[in-house]
Amino acid sequence: MSLPSGIKRRGNTYSARYVLPRSVQRIAGRHDLVQALGTSSLSDAVELAGPIIAGWKAWAVAVGKGDMRHEPEVYVRRAEVAHRLIRDGIDQWSPELIVERAREVFAMQQAGAITANDVEAQVGRDVERYIVQQQDAGAQVDVEGVRRAHRAALGQLGVTVADSLETYLHERAGDLTAQSLAETEKRCRVFVNWVGSNVEMATVTRVTAGQFVAKVIQPRPVSRVTKTKEVSACRGWFQWAMLRGEVDANPFDRMQATLKKSKRGQEAPRRAWTEGELLVVLRGLKDDRREPLLYPLTLLALYTGMRLNEVCALTVADYDAEAEVIHVREGKSAAAVRVVPVHPAIRELLVELTANTGDGFLLPGLVPGGPDRKRGHGIGKTWGRRIRSLGITDRRLVFHGLRATFITAALNAGAPKEVVQQVAGHEREGVTMNSYARVLSLDLCRQAVGGVSFGDLSR
Fold first, then answer.
1. Distance (Å, whole) CA 410 – CA 16
2. CA angle 8, 10, 15 (to 5 degrees)
3. How many other C-beta atoms lie within 10 A of the C-beta of residue 85?
């Protein structure tokens, strides 16, 4: 029996699946989107998949128009909310909903569309329905939420967490990359959704922040580093709010110290490549006609130690054939701007790439993608899928591991740590190194790069 469109069976359960339009696949770096529905009932699966697929389609439309600000999950959440409202009508009352409606009708009153009595009457009806609903369910009434609704109807509601976050993100847009801004929004939005978008900033206490960290962030099955970043995002937001006078104190201050640190040893999330693994990958990519850029991309990263987007951003003008160096003109930090000597193993490759470019880039034809519109967005995902198809199943082996492999090889060959840091674009440690040795000799850097060898791979 054929399954309905958008439904895929995995074992005894169903999943939602949406194949992206061809024009979107290369930009997004993926062929389809799949999400487990956790049910063995086909009818339930169809109902659950509806809003998910609707959200994915909306995301695909946005990506096709060049809007990569949000991940698919954001559109799915929006579709699920819309689906729930259509399904349930407006029978599911909550203080959050009442406050939102109160703010809307107060704005209408300010515009002269309705009277103050109309506003008061509507809020009264909304509150009455909510209280009856809670009593029928035997649940407790949120008294503070009801009070907020009445203040909202009178225009006396203070700055809400939702409004504060929007203003904060708007101001930070000028000094954060699109990706960093999106990550900040994602992390802070979790708190807004948990505490309620219409809660006033001034009412968020240290107890509230502590409960959020203990109940939401701490139980998550992610690393402590990730949890710390999530708390830090909220801390940065409330620090800004304190300077704006929205709160008297930062409830997230020093809250990172409450995160538990595991004492158990854990395997590193990624590792350097072995010579055997590199041979498998390079042999598999060398004659790949479908994705001919994967091979030069891998070689350039392996023999320069450059990051994915540094390699993808290289232009013909960045390669100085006479001096045999590559100029990295911008990066994630000041140290990323550097000159990298050309390793003999990629000299001929660079000449070939320079001669065959069609758009001025050493790796031509890449379509920018992701929140920051980086040229490496799509090909990075393609590279990951391709190496898995070649039998590289260790999830610790990733593209960034080529950089670690280069650095390890240079250090093993006897290159000084400070020289390798400069070649790789790492921030150097210590006041002395940062203040008095900003640029080390190009000859020292050339020796460090020349000493990198991967056995048969470098011959």
1. 47
2. 45
3. 11
**Is the pTM higher than 0.70?**
no
d(CA 135, CA 78): 30
Cβ atoms of 423 and 395 closer than 8 Å:
no
459/61 Cα distance (integer angstroms): 48
Side chain identity at residue 404, one-letter code: A
> How many other C-beta atoms lie within 10 A of the C-beta of residue 282?
17
Q: Which residue has the tokens 């999943």?
A: 15
φ, ψ at 385 (rounded to 5°): -65, -40
Q: Could you tell me the mean pLDDT of each successive run of 10 residues in the chain, 459 residues long?
A: 81 88 86 87 85 89 85 81 58 82 86 84 88 88 90 90 94 88 93 91 94 92 89 96 94 89 64 91 90 94 94 95 93 85 94 92 90 88 93 92 94 93 79 50 92 75
| Residue that has been written with the tokens 């700055």 in this structure | 159
Query: Does residue 127 contact residue 149 with C-beta atoms inside 8 Å?
Result: yes
For every residue of the chain, which 3-state class applies, written as one string?
CCCCCCEEEECCEEEEEEECCHHHHHHHCCCEEEEECCCCCHHHHHHHHHHHHHHHHHHHHHHHCCCCCCCHHHHHHHHHHHHHHHHHCCCCCCHHHHHHHHHHHHHHHHCCCCCHHHHHHHHHHHHHHHHHHHHHHCCCCCHHHHHHHHHHHCCCCCCEHHHHHHHHHHHHCCCCCHHHHHHHHHHHHHHHHHHCCCCEHHHCCHHHHHHHHHHHHCCCCCCHHHHHHHHHHHHHHHHHHHHCCCCCCCCCCCHHHHCCCCCCCCCCCCCCCCHHHHHHHHHHHHCCCCCCCHHHHHHHHHHHCCCHHHHHCCEHHHEECCCCEEEECCCCCHHHCEEEECCHHHHHHHHHHHHHCCCCECCCCCCCECCCCECHHHHHHHHHHHHHHCCCCCCCCCCHHHHHHHHHHHHHCCCCHHHHHHHHCCCCCCHHHHHHCCCCCHHHHHHHHHCCCCHHHHC
- 275-458 has CATH 1.10.443.10 classification: yes
Residue whose pair of structure tokens reads 């993100």 in the numeric block: 169
Number of residues assigned to the chain: 459
Assign residue 8 a region: left if phi > 0, alpha if psi is -120 to 50, beta otherwise?
Answer: beta
Taking the chain, what is the end-to-end CA distance rounded to the nearest angstrom?
56
Topology adopted by domain 161-258: DNA polymerase; domain 1 (1.10.150)
